[in-house]
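Title: Prediction job returns without error message
Component: structure pipeline
Severity: low
Priority: P3
Assignee: unassigned

Description:
Job completed but the reporter wants confirmation the result is attached to the right record. Sequence as submitted:
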Amino acid sequence: MVSVPGSSKRWSCSTLGDGIDQVQMQKLEAQEAELVRQLEETTYFSDGIVELDFRDQTSGNEVTPNQRPVATPVRADASDNVQSPESEVTDTLVVVTPKAHGPSDTSAPTTPVSDVAATPTPSAPTKAAAAYRPKGMLDRMVQPKSKRRELEAPEWLKEEWKNGDKAAIADLLRTCNWDKDAFLNELLVIVKKKKSFQLTVDEGWHSEEVEDGSDPTSDLGTDFAGLDAATKRQTDKDKGNFDQPGMTKYMQDGWTTKEALKRVLSSMISKSGKLRSLARELKKNYADSATSECLKNLELQIKNVDSQYDSCNEAWAKGEVEDFQGEENAKKYYDKKGGGDDTDPDDTQTKPPKAKHKKEKNAKDKDKKTKKEKKNKPGRTIRGMSAAIGEEPLIFKFGFTHNPIWRWTNPIYGYATARERWSNMLILHYGPEPYTPAMLASCAAVIRTARDFVADVGECSAAKSGGLINLSKRDPKNGERDCHRLMTKQCRLALPLKKRYLKLRDGDPKIPFLRFRDWLSMMLLHNCMHILVGLVRPDHDREHAILTAFWRNFELQEPTHPIFERARNGEIILGRTIPVLLHGDEGRSKKRSAFLVTNIHSVLGRGVEVELRTASRKHYLKMLPNFMGHSYTNRFLACAMHKSAYTGKKSYVFDILLERLAAELAHVSSTGVTDRFGTQWWAVCVGIVGDWPWLQKSGSLERSFLNATKHRSAAGAPRVCRGICHLCAAGQPGVPFEQVGTRHPTWRNTFLQQSPFSRPSPFQVLPHAPGENQLARLFHFDLFHCFHLGLAKNYLGSMIALLSQREPGTSIDTRFEQLTAKYLGWCSTNGRPAHVQRLTKEMINWVSTTVYPTGGWHKGDLSTSLLLWVESRFLSEDWSDDDLLFLGGEAAVAANKFIRILYTSGVWLCSSDAAEVANYGFRFLRRYSDCALRAFQRNLRHFVIQPKAHAMHHLFLSMLEASSLGPVMSILCTSVQQDEDYIGRASRLSRHVSETHISERVCDRYLQSAYAQWVKIGYIIRAGS
């Protein structure tokens, strides 16, 4: 329905575009009729092209080109010269090669120049009249030709002239300098582009009907007056972008399409809200079966609308940011747009959107133009943003949003409806993935920006912002050092931890080390020990009870651990002893180089998201895994350094780091820390966790996955393997690690029979169960790397390959496209993140049938989504005709069941739950082993068995054996999903600092970033807040 506020009449039309076309046609016909009447009074008609040659009447000199008008097509007759009553002609008019459109008298003599000069000629027609003369030529061009068929206009030209914007087409003809071929080529390109981006919006009908006998077109001008005015205002606003040489109205189609799409998105939001309100009313007031069926259809339509809205919103966002981003970075864009260092800010900024007094503002604009260029110009950031936004810097707000249309237009908290009355919103960057923009600047750039800002506003105004003047006075050459001193010592915007340093050889760069005892002292000072127990707020009695209960359960599984002997002797209090884990891993620094980050964290935390949704009320002695919350608030940095600092000739640095970590953990377990009231606290390391390469390197393990034989010897004989597991002899001759389908494997008799260490481990000083080779149990396998990024990827690669063969199609790519459609449809229906847009043979590394397919992704949650999808298809389809698929489907069901139990449980599983997890895990391994055997017998490359399958075998066997002793610690506690997030954050910091002092700079920035998170969550309360 089309209606304009303030109009007195309404008319029905099928589309908004039809109504506008009718209005324009009515106006153009009336104007053209008036112009024809004026032309008949001033001149006679003939067809031709004339060129104006202006000469001064007195001197005869030719007028300069800048003073000469552009050659304009007119309709004049050289044989009849009529005196214009308005003015006299003082220039010589030379007629050149008239192009006749009909029979002409070729015998008529040409008028001499001298005679024409003495003959009065009519005055130049008005500007409005000249603008519409190309329409006559185009009218004749599209008319049917009965004799000269070669002059027949193309059908697309006739259709465009009939239905398109005639004024714009006439402008294009004039722009092409009346060259018919150039005009047709240019118009054809524009028409094709217009059709490719055309968007039709069907509007509803009016409730009021047109009265009989009335002319609808006679009142559309009134009804669309407001719409025309709004369009004109928007066009005037963007005039600077369109007033380019050779640019026509047709070239504004991109902008028009984006504006139309924006209106469609707003309409879709409104319609979606109305449909949801209708669904709620139906659920509330009607409960019969017919209504339920209608509700299902209605909810399906709502999902379709939301899906289309997301697609359109993404297209609109890409269109908005296309010119800004492209293939250039921001610096090149600003330099190209005039936002560089040598650009005057007055040339890149337009008038502010809100000016209270126009006269005062005009005076200010005049003063700006007369001012000389200032010595200190605004900073690059302010200039670049002003150039991109097109407004003067009034009040800017920068942030991230996943839905810019909703963030701007929604009536609840949208910027357009806020009381601050924001005037505009601009998308500066579009990221293909969430959280992709990493807007971290160097400290030197921050100092330069602060200097420019202080120079612009003056020190008096800048003094209102605390620390800004001090920041502007720092030296950019040592920006990192000086900024850290300012933030830490003066502003105190970093965690109050003292950096220690590893004792290295002379000349090696200093590597900072944060002692865990200092972390504990800081948490005691700020009353934050509840973080290590998994509570939201301090509660000393509850903390004591939880820790006592934890060690009581731990004693059932490890009765010989030395901590309990010390507790019985009164040397330690279990209610004030924190169980901790040591984690280490390498992230990615500059140029994809490795960056090692080690941290210490508590076993106890706030749980996982799934567990929080399922449990309604927590027990007083709640003990949950440490997965919730920002990783800066529950992981505590020990050391971070670049790979070049501990490899090659500096490999001794890694050994020093391990010795320092072991000594620190031994100190907090034996001596502990004391608070200001004399209360003593301890922390005991119960495990070292991480991926398998970290376990091998940190433990100096002689037996690891690196020993797995991949090829035969040169003579063709099998290579002798030294073993692939630090807990048993699996992989050695006669002890196959591939034996995963039984509860009584051969390697079970070799458990802890051999020492796995190639040299004495520095971690032997940590408290652990006494006995030969018991220290090896301190190194735990990780569920995340062993299953989600290990065995599950092998399993899913084979399952996807088998499922693709069930799809119809002659090519493998076609079958994978159909498989992709099913997967994406399932994810959309069940609300699961797909993480990928296509399932391809490259994604599972299946280049040929002679290669084992295995997942090539690095996202653990993608394995979870694919496992759930395979299970859903197995339960809803009949796979009995394919024994490999059938067994694989049963394996998916078993895997999802033990994962659900783990993620919905706490730190301690009761005996029955632990046995159930182990049994489902064994079922998965048996199905997987059976599939591998059958595929091998059929000479198929599917279901490869790698060392991580053996690691999962260890995890399930340990849970089954421990279930007979009492509560069992969940294997999820030693999983490292949250630690991976922590490693990624620290590694990203390393990409934005100098490589010379990378360890120290990362440590400084980490303490500042962690301080912000601690203040945000309320662990640290700043004075005056």
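Comment from assignee: result matches the submitted record. Residues 783-974 form one domain.
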